[in-house]
Amino acid sequence: MIDSIGLNPVDYKLIESPLDSFEYPHTFGLDAAGTVVSVGENVEDFKVGDHVSGHDNLANNGTFAEYAIFPDYCLAKIPDKVSFETASALLCGAMTAYQAIFRKMNLTGKKTILIHAGAGGVESIAIQLAKSVGLKVITTVSTAKMDFVKDFEPDKIIDYRKENVTDEVMKYTKGTGVDLVLNTVNAHEAQLDIEKRLAYNGQLIWIAAAPESVNQDVLAEKGITISALNLGGAHQDNNYAQKKDLGVMATELLELVEQDKLDPSITEVLSFDQLVSGLEKLTHRDSVGKIIVKVTK
């Protein structure tokens, strides 16, 4: 039984451009936290009454409902001191940030990271995780969202509407560039990350779009690595270890919050009848942090 839902940009993107495989009526939504009411005969790690959260398979009926079916591999047990609202905020966006920092990035010897669009649900978590491993964090943000990002204490904030991002990055790093980049914005910025902002042996993790073009000579000369991130793709793959890691990452994020080492950056909690308005805020990109929807009253 679902208590709380975490909203994500991918939710409205799937509504606008649904998969050809969807059968209708179709229920959208990927993230939820709630109580187990039934388990399959081969399920061993969960029982009726457990409080759980999970990032579901976008190919299936989803979480914008009172009940949803989850594969057990992607579920995490919610600690007693963590609320359903908080648990639902630590899924798609937070897990994407976690996977970027702790699964994709080579952190050995790295000191600096550029995280684009620091006020978002993925990025505000990424800032905190990057700080937790000792990285100096540079982030970009619009003027209106500056105060929100300051609460996460990045080492350098660039107002991309007023400042040149490349110039500010190179100035902060004294001309060497950053070791790591998390790009959730667009292909053009990813291209600039490769050509202008990354240091020797640097690494780009991209989510929204791949670089516009890749100059092999630039990659070879600077030793740059480019990595794509597709969190939910594990659901469609036949690698069970990667599927299971969805539950592992969700569990580890819950533990960080339980230990007061991570702020889930919840900025709004809406009622179920306000779900559409929450999605509209995401489409207009005028929200910060994480929007949660309560299903139960």
Structure explained in plain terms:
This protein is of the alpha/beta class and 297 residues long. The protein folds into two domains: 2-89 and 233-294, Medium-chain alcohol dehydrogenases, catalytic domain (Quinone Oxidoreductase, Chain A, domain 1), CATH 3.90.180.10; 96-228, Alpha-Beta Complex (Quinone Oxidoreductase, Chain A, domain 1). It has eleven helices and twelve strands. The strands form two sheets. The chain has a six-stranded mixed β-sheet with strand order 4-3-2-1-12-11. It has a six-stranded parallel β-sheet with strand order 7-6-5-8-9-10, sandwiched between helices. Strand 8 (178-183), helix 7 and strand 9 (198-206) form a beta-alpha-beta unit. Helix 1 crosses helix 11 (275-284), helix 3 (92-104) runs parallel beside helix 4 (121-132) and helix 3 packs across helix 10 (240-258). The two termini are 13 Å apart.
Brief account:
Helix content is 34%, strand content 21%.
